[in-house]
């Protein structure tokens, strides 16, 4: 059982977002409320869209009167599930790539390969993602004046997930590979080898249990990174699942997101930053909350890993580290540890 | 000699991977693999003959290298400035924080966790709004919130925007690494010998954490180059990524990325070399 409060707070924030979003779709059919003019009890006009944040509209409304909080609620499931899925894929593929990297390559080649792969540190992900994804996600105009996408809806989502995954696999793979190689150098692996364990057994019985908790933390970091990339892509009007662009030469509508997912909302509303700042900030703040939630999960889990075998803690005033004092008696334990 | 060979290998691989990646949009657009290789060949030729590469500017063919120098330097000043200021501020504040009592340190760390999770777009938006707000309240324009064109250069806003998050990342990482270092026995030893705490912190702990920070700074830089594109588009700054974004051809992407990468590559090579020498010397003594 994980005792860290941070972990549960983070997990419940994400859970509330996703489940309430599904609930909204299930019970209200994701019907976003639109209020363009507001009257008081005596039928006097007291305001028109866009409204500022209030009790009635927690995040305000956009200029067309759509309630932003409900739009955010509707889009939460797409964005968060996509982020979680991309995070899982990234870690999973990198882990698979890392296995031969750690097990079969000799030390020297691995070090060299590691050096070479570090060249990927200089290729910024957002720029590449913007360039590669824009032909996929933006609606195009053909010679007859029809709007069309190059790929179907599922293909677009699939390609976006694949591209956002594959671009980090070299870096993440070498990182996980090094972690795995460090585990393989431990003494108990040597012991297991001497006792005749096969590679498969070492992998399943020793490496996987040691790697899994670390992978959870890596997963949290990756999810944060994906969320940040989503905000960037949103700013560049590349929305998850496709951008609906109006090619009407006279009074064209601004690019629209197809599903109200969050990066779409960021891209739609950022332009209003100076006129109605609260409209622009709402969706970005939601991204911030989601990032914070993932970070809380990661930190809480790490704390849990460090303290899971111990009951009480003392603070070391010098290093600020929590000194762990074991109270659990093992079945076999020296009484006078000092003399040993 | 060995190091130089390794570096050239790395630089070569970086350039190759940039070229390979920059062809990808074409592959996706045409769904045709042979077109992709043709495109890569074109890009490669353009990159090799960089001094003959041309681009369209206001309907005219112009030489790429002639026009790119000044925006390129401008972008580099912004990037280096932000990185340098973020690093120095983080280092100073780390020293200040680590001589504080425990409860302050813990609060600082919690605040940093919160600040770390701010999306960069939110930071840019808040800075923009803050400047407008100050102007409205006091009538003092701290800095222009947007550049008006290619000739108009603003430095303060983009540097401030770019440095805030790297500063937070550096600060947190430095505190974590230094605290780990402070728990080691040589610190206890030097304190027992009567050295001042601040002396141990600045001279020994900082030197020993520098390698970790150096490796960490690579991922910070990675993040900053991405942010540079965003900052240049938001503030309408005509830097190198602006050319890249407005042109949108694979050749342009490859050429700009390579130009952007080379100075940092050299900088890191120099740093790595000094750090290796530095730590080796320490071991020998």
From TrEMBL, chain A:
Which source organism?
Fictibacillus norfolkensis
Ranges of residues in domain ABC transmembrane type-1: 80-298
Q: Name one Pfam family in it.
A: BPD_transp_1
Q: Where are the transmembrane segments?
A: 7-28, 78-104, 116-137, 157-184, 215-236, 278-298
Q: Does the keyword Membrane apply?
A: yes
Membrane topology term reads: Multi-pass membrane protein
Q: What's the protein here called? A: ABC transporter permease subunit
Q: Which PROSITE patterns match?
A: ABC_TM1
Q: Where in the cell is it found?
A: Cell membrane; Membrane
Name the UniProt key words of this record, in alphabetical order: Membrane, Transmembrane, Transmembrane helix, Transport
Lineage, highest ranks first: Bacteria, Bacillati, Bacillota, Bacilli, Bacillales
Key word Transport present: yes
Automatic annotation (TrEMBL), chain B:
Q: Does the keyword Lipid metabolism apply?
A: no
Name-wise, this protein is ABC transporter permease subunit
Q: Which positions fall inside the ABC transmembrane type-1 domain?
A: 103-281
Entry keyword Hydrolase: no
Q: Origin, by domain of life?
A: Bacteria
The alphabetized UniProt keywords are: Cell membrane, Membrane, Transmembrane, Transmembrane helix, Transport
The protein's topology relative to the membrane is: Multi-pass membrane protein
InterPro entries registered for this protein in UniProt: MetI-like, MetI-like_sf
- Bilayer-crossing residues are 7-28, 72-99, 111-134, 154-171, 220-240, 252-271
Where, subcellularly, is it found? Cell membrane
């Amino acid at each position: 059982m994980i005792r860290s409060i941070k972990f549960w707070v983070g997990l419940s924030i994400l859970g509330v977002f996703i489940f309430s979003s599904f609930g909204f779709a299930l019970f209200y059919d994701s019907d976003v409320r639109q209020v363009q003019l507001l009257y008081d009890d005596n039928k006097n006009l007291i305001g028109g869209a866009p409204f500022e944040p209030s009790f009635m509209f927690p995040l305000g409304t956009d200029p067309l009167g759509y309630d932003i909080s409900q739009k955010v609620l509707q889009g939460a499931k797409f964005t968060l599930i996509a982020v979680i899925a991309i995070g899982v894929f990234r870690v999973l593929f990198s882990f698979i790539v890392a296995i031969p990297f750690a097990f079969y390559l000799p030390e020297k080649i691995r070090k060299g390969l590691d050096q070479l792969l570090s060249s990927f540190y200089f290729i910024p992900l957002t720029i590449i993602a913007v360039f590669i994804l824009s032909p996929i996600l933006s609606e195009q105009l053909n010679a007859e004046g029809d709007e069309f996408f190059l790929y179907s809806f599922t293909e677009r989502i699939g390609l976006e997930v694949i591209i956002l995954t594959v671009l980090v696999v070299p870096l993440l793979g070498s990182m996980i590979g090094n972690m795995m190689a460090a585990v393989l150098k431990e003494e108990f692996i040597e012991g297991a080898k001497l006792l005749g364990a096969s590679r498969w057994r070492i992998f399943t019985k020793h490496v996987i249990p040691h790697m899994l908790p670390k992978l959870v933390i890596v997963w949290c970091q990756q999810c944060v990174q994906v969320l940040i990339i989503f905000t960037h892509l949103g700013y560049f009007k590349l929305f998850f699942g496709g951008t609906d662009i109006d090619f009407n030469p006279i009074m064209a509508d601004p690019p629209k997101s197809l599903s109200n997912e969050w990066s779409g909302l960021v891209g739609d509303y950022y332009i209003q930053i100076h006129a109605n700042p609260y409209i622009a900030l709402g969706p970005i703040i939601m991204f911030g909350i989601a990032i914070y939630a993932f970070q809380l999960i990661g930190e809480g889990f790490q704390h849990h890993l460090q303290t899971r075998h111990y009951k009480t803690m003392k603070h070391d005033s010098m290093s600020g580290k929590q000194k762990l004092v074991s109270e659990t008696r093992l079945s076999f334990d020296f009484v006078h540890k000092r003399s040993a | 000699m060995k190091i130089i060979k390794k570096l050239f290998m790395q630089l070569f691989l970086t350039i190759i991977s940039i070229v390979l990646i920059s062809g990808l949009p074409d592959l996706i657009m045409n769904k045709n693999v042979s077109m992709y290789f043709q495109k890569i060949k074109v890009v490669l030729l353009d990159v090799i003959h960089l001094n003959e590469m041309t681009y369209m500017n206001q309907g005219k063919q112009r030489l790429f290298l002639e026009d790119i120098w000044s925006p390129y330097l401008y972008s580099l000043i912004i990037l280096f400035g932000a990185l340098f200021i973020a690093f120095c501020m983080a280092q100073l504040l780390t020293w200040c924080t680590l001589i504080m009592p425990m409860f302050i340190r813990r609060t600082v760390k919690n605040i940093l966790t919160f600040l770390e999770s701010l999306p960069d777009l939110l930071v840019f938006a808040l800075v923009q709004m803050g400047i407008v707000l100050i102007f409205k309240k006091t009538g003092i324009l701290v800095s222009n919130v947007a550049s008006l064109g290619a000739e108009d250069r603003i430095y303060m806003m983009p540097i401030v925007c770019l440095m805030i998050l790297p500063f937070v990342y550096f600060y947190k990482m430095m505190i974590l690494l230094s605290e780990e270092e402070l728990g080691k026995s040589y610190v206890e030893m030097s304190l027992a010998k009567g050295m001042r705490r601040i002396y141990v912190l600045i001279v020994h702990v900082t030197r020993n954490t520098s390698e970790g920070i150096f490796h960490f700074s690579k991922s910070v830089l990675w993040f900053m180059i991405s942010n540079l594109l965003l900052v240049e588009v938001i503030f309408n700054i005509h830097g190198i990524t602006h050319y890249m974004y407005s042109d949108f051809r694979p050749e342009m992407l490859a050429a700009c990325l390579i130009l952007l990468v080379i100075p940092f590559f050299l900088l890191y090579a120099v740093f790595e070399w000094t750090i290796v020498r530095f730590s080796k010397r320490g071991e020998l003594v």
